[in-house]
Design a protein that fits this description.
The complex is a heterodimer of chains A (354) and B (313). Helix content of chain A is 31%, strand content 20%. Chain A is α/β, with parallel strands linked by helices and 354 residues long. A 10-stranded mixed sheet of chain A has the order 3-2-4-7-1-8-12-11-9-10. In chain B, strands 7-6-5-8-9 form a 5-stranded antiparallel sheet, with no helix packed on it. The chains are: A alpha/beta (354), B mainly beta (313). Chains A and B meet through helix 1, helix 5 and helix 6 of A and strand 1, strand 5, strand 6, strand 7 and strand 10 of B.
Chain lengths: 354, 313
């Protein structure tokens, strides 16, 4: 069962993120992260000592800095020791862990954060190290190349074409003009092929950034936030790891996660999709059965800002923030991890009737 | 603010990985120019083969030879090959379903240009001249308009099967230590040790990392500490470290510099190793051109009272 039992509801009560930038070389990871931690706590009036559980997501490979997540903990105020955990995944999966912790009743509040500093390395190459070490990693297939194979498969299947992909890019970046944190804030020419059929405009910007969310249970959530974004369901699923085993034009794992999270029980008005590459938005819209009435990626999505390891958590945060502001009543947030939408998480968030 | 420090950082790691029986047969087969798949319970043939059924997670061991020829199922043109990739000239990434297989294998296709590549095109394996039992024993694919090659029905039994691979990896970074550590390193180059004070609990951290781990707030007020300090605890090192030209035994110690609320560590010299003690007063010894103290030596002052450093242990 992956929907919250009726007697204990968990909500996102606050969200904060950095401005996402091509480089943050003037800051260490903890220096980049700390203002976001302070901002998210300030929104709720909570202090470090009021947080029952802390969970983070990051990857040392991005900046090449071993055990960077332990250094980042300095920014939380982790001494004397706190109840804390870390996933070497996007922060959306850290949020999933925190949600389960809150469901057990062991915690009433949780701080979830994640950060990614891609600027010190060559992220296209760094991401090859997450692949199957026997059959894929020795070939160094970079992240854009794998996404391009997926895009071509979609084109061959008649699901999209280059102008349609360009339209996805333009729409996301147009939406990002309203997002002060975005790295790319206006439509730009699609540019040259990076790996054909993907052009520069089909790919996410490379950059550094961080995000944080506070979760709270039941009445605690109502105290901390005028309109909590209740997590009605959340689930994550994974595809077979062999790329050649999968149908790259579909995302059955997303569909299953959405089903288990209750996404299909009633229509959503908003969807924040973690589609770093334009073609992946086509796959996700189909898997999630989103029609034109749904506002997709009002933040600009991952095509406008893509701090790796934080971009998925930001989708949940953006969806929740729209509920907090009264701009959405029922929103879907999606996060992905791995090549070609390998692993997918779907959360359904709701605000109480106004 | 002074310019941010940067330095190249190379992370290299050779992972030595063992192989399961199916992976071993497949990679040994490549060495012998034989391509093996594995059959699932529902009769599909997976190439490259895996140890467990992707749907049912059952153990699968039924090896079957497939052809070195096949069909492109999707492709992407890579006009700028990157380090480590199969070809150094522009090529197409391809997923290829080999004849006799139901799934596709990722590799490179050597073709003159994107106009020469399409989904559905026929290709064959070009074998590497030297083969070791690795996916790179396939040099790449090449266009092929001949007949389907017929597999010989190999059993998957080999003499001298490969049992592991060494996966070498190298990643290049430009490392930057951030604001607080940049200031610390810059001060060290002037032979000064500068920490940072927490605005909340007033502790001085040396070296500073930019945040107070107790209060979770930024440290920013810079405080020069030392140069003298007190040994708070120590150990005697009896094993010679690789690439380190120091006679053993020697003493490695935690040293609380005067004015610091956190001990840093350093080597103690200028005193027999068995005379070093908690409370010993020390000072840094700099060598010409060095960016940090080579070691610390006794100052000759009386030992510090335990009470003065007991909170810093």
């Amino acid at each position: 069962m992956t929907s919250a039992p009726g007697d204990r509801q968990i909500a996102v009560v606050a969200f904060a993120q950095t401005d996402h930038r091509r480089t943050s070389e003037d800051l260490s990871e903890v220096e980049m992260l700390m203002p976001v931690l302070h901002e998210v706590l300030d929104r709720t009036g909570l202090k470090t000592a009021d947080i029952d559980f802390t969970c983070s997501g990051s990857s040392d490979y991005l900046a090449g800095r071993a055990f960077s997540f332990t250094l980042a903990l300095d920014g939380v105020g982790a001494w004397p020791p706190i109840s804390e955990s870390h996933v070497e995944m996007d922060g959306a999966w850290a949020l999933y862990e925190a949600w389960t912790k809150l469901l057990t009743g062991d915690a009433g509040t949780a701080l979830v954060y994640s950060y990614g500093k891609s600027s010190p390395g060559s992220v296209r190459d760094v991401l090859t190290r997450q692949l199957d070490p026997y059959y894929l990693a020795p070939l160094w297939p970079d992240s854009v190349a794998l996404a391009a194979l997926q895009a071509q498969a979609l084109i061959d299947a008649g699901d999209t074409d280059e102008p349609a992909l360009a339209a996805v890019a333009a729409r996301n970046r147009e939406a990002a003009t309203e997002n002060p944190h975005a790295q790319l804030k206006e439509p730009a020419p699609q540019g040259d092929y990076l790996v054909r059929p993907l052009r520069t405009g089909d790919c996410p910007p490379i950059g550094d950034g961080a995000a944080a969310v506070v979760l709270a249970a039941g009445d605690r959530a109502r105290e901390l936030c005028p309109r909590p974004a209740w997590i009605r369901g959340i689930d994550h699923r994974i595809e077979a790891h062999g790329l050649g085993v999968r149908d790259l034009t579909d995302s059955p794992s997303t569909r299953l996660a959405a089903e288990r999270a209750g996404a299909f029980e009633r229509p959503v008005d908003t969807a924040e999709l973690h589609a770093p590459f334009t073609a992946q938005e086509i796959v996700l819209r189909k898997a999630l059965r989103l029609d034109d009435g749904v506002v997709v990626n009002p933040s600009g999505g991952a095509l406008a800002a893509h701090p790796i390891m934080a971009a998925g958590l930001i989708r949940i945060g953006e969806a929740a923030a729209r509920i907090h502001r009264g701009e959405s009543d029922r929103a879907l947030a999606h996060a992905t991890s791995g090549p070609c939408l390998q692993q997918n998480l779907v959360a359904v968030l709701e605000g109480e009737p106004r | 603010m002074p310019e941010v420090l940067k330095a190249p950082l190379v992370v290299e790691f050779p992972f030595t990985r063992s192989l399961g029986p199916v992976q071993s047969a497949f990679l040994t087969g490549l060495r012998e120019r034989v391509v093996l798949g594995v059959r699932t319970a529902d009769g599909r043939t997976l190439v490259p083969p895996v140890e467990y059924d992707p749907v049912t997670a059952e153990d699968i061991r039924d090896l079957v030879e497939v052809a070195p020829t096949g069909t492109v199922t999707t492709w992407a043109w890579n006009h700028a090959p990157r380090r480590g990739q199969p070809l150094t000239t522009p090529f197409a990434w391809v997923l290829v379903r080999l004849d006799g297989a139901d799934t596709a294998l990722l590799h490179a296709l050597d073709a003159p240009g994107p106009d020469a590549v399409h989904t559905g095109m026929r290709v064959r394996i070009r074998w590497a001249a030297e083969r070791t039992g690795a996916i790179t024993d396939i040099a790449c694919f090449e266009p092929y308009d001949g007949d389907r090659a017929q597999p010989a029905g190999h059993t998957g039994e080999f003499e001298d099967p490969v049992t592991g691979i060494v996966a070498a990896a190298r990643l290049d970074y430009t490392y930057s230590p951030g604001r607080a550590q940049t200031a610390y390193i810059n001060a060290l180059s002037g032979r000064r040790t500068v920490g940072e004070r927490c605005p909340s609990c007033r502790k001085v951290y040396v070296p500073p990392r930019g945040a107070c781990p107790t209060c979770g707030v930024a440290t920013s007020e810079q405080v020069e500490v030392g140069p003298r300090g007190t040994v708070t605890t120590f150990c005697i090192v009896n094993i010679k470290a690789k690439n380190l030209d120091i006679e053993v035994p020697y003493v490695y110690a935690h040293i609380a510099l005067d004015g610091a609320d956190l001990a840093l560590h350093g080597r103690i010299g200028g005193i027999p190793y068995d005379e070093v003690r908690m409370g010993l007063r020390v000072e840094p010894v700099w060598t010409e051109g060095s960016r940090y103290p080579d070691h610390y030596r006794p100052t000759g002052e009386p030992d510090a009272d335990y009470d003065t450093y007991k909170e810093l242990l």
